Amino acid sequence: MKQRTLKAASLILILSIFTVLLAACGANSEKTAAPVGANAASNAKITLPETLRIGFISANNNKTITGPEGWAQSKGYLESELKKYGVKEFKYFTFPNGPNLNEAISAGTLDVGIYGDTPAINGKAAGLKTRLINITQVNMNAWLVAKADGSKSLEDLKGKKVATSQGSYMSRYLTSLLKEKGLDKDVKILHLLPADAEAALSRGDIAAYAYPTGFGPLLLKKGYVAIDEAANHPLLQGSSLTVVTEDYLAKNPQFPKLWNDLRTRAVKEIRENKEEYFKFYAEASGYPLDVVKASFKIDQWPVEAALPDGLKLIEETKKFLVDQGLAKKDYVIKDWLTN
């Protein structure tokens, strides 16, 4: 009888210990799950300013951005998602070229800028208080365009005038190309915006013009010829960057992730809907659909915010600008990039 009592007591003790262990495991599971709720609560506390001011380059002054950000804008979720964090008003500002956008940042009238690598890098080197959010587009082509009965090669440009938009990614391409061919001292480069260049070309005021995407293929469609392209010189291709002002970032450190998450969603969507995206781009830019398709490939918009190849490309751009004295001072690209 005693033996049975002891066995029963032992069994009860074992069951008690097992119950305690199960309870402890349950408590640990609850503790493990807690951070998810905590993160959700943390995200819910993010509050952005009521107004977001976005600047970008537009040839036709259209208030719709043409990249993935514009796709998100046209689908409605660029604004609807950010409104969840307190943004009530979105102000879109267009600029004819990058240096003008830099002036707006310097004047304190923008929070975010989307534009070419050369003006963005030069602006930072000149002391513009920006931080890099992402490399939104890579491997942007440029076309060195001449009249059909004009210059046929780079060598034909010797002793003549050419033009492009000063401070743009096309200007870096053109300057680098002429230097590479030993023509930098024999060819004069003038500043002229793309929209004004065709008239100068047709009159013979300039022998060639370095055009960006959209404009380049459009001129070729009209019968002009390309005597060179940046695509033939991979390191001379351009990139489009997105920057945020240091002041806005200091007050809203979560903004880059929110913005990049929206951009990533848009890039994934346009890769699955290429034809629809080309049509959207044509409507937003004002270029014919075939010109848009000739201007770029969808994979030029990377899903990731800053691919190593993209960082390498803008590092090469910065190096050239510093070496040529076009950028006022050197700096580390990775230090410029937001974490």
Primary descriptors:
single chain, 339 residues, alpha/beta, D-Maltodextrin-Binding Protein, domain 2, 2 domains, 5-stranded mixed beta sheet, 10 strands, 50% helix, 17% strand, disordered N terminus
Major pleated sheet: 5 strands, mixed
As laid out across the biggest beta sheet, the strand order is 2-1-3-10-4
Number of helices: 14
Amino- and carboxy-terminal Cα gap: 72 Å
| Rough outline | globular
Report the radius of gyration as a whole number of Å: 27 Å
The strand count comes to 10
Number of domains: 2
The CATH class designation of the largest domain is Alpha Beta
How is the CATH topology of the largest domain named? D-Maltodextrin-Binding Protein, domain 2
Please provide the ordered H/E string of secondary-structure elements. Answer: HEHHEHEHEEEHEHEHEEHHHHHH
Looking at this structure, what is the CATH superfamily of the largest domain?
Periplasmic binding protein-like II
Low-confidence stretches: 1-42
What secondary-structure arrangement, pairings included, does this model have?
Elements: H1 2-44, E1 51-57, H2 68-75, H3 77-83, E2 89-95, H4 98-106, E3 112-116, H5 117-125, E4 130-140, E5 143-146, E6 161-164, H6 169-180, E7 188-191, H7 194-203, E8 208-211, H8 215-221, E9 225-229, E10 238-245, H9 246-251, H10 255-272, H11 274-285, H12 289-295, H13 308-323, H14 333-336
Parallel strand pairs: 1-2, 1-3, 6-7, 6-8
Antiparallel strand pairs: 3-10, 4-10, 5-8, 5-9
Structural write-up:
InterPro entries: SsuA/THI5. Residues 1-23 form the signal peptide. Keywords: Signal. This is PhnD/SsuA/transferrin family substrate-binding protein. Residues 97-255 form the SsuA/THI5-like domain. The chain is of the alpha/beta class and 339 residues long. The protein folds into two domains: 51-139 and 238-336, D-Maltodextrin-Binding Protein, domain 2 (3-Layer(aba) Sandwich), CATH 3.40.190; 143-236, D-Maltodextrin-Binding Protein, domain 2. Helix content is 50%, strand content 17%. It contains 14 helices and ten strands. The strands form two sheets. The chain has a five-stranded mixed β-sheet, with helices on both faces. A five-stranded mixed β-sheet has the order 7-6-8-5-9, sandwiched between helices. Strand 6 (161-164), helix 6 and strand 7 (188-191) form a beta-alpha-beta unit. Helix 2 crosses helix 10, helix 8 (215-221) crosses helix 12 (289-295) and helix 11 (274-285) crosses helix 12. The longest helix has 43 residues, at 2-44. The chain is globular and about 60 Å long. The N and C termini lie far apart (72 Å).
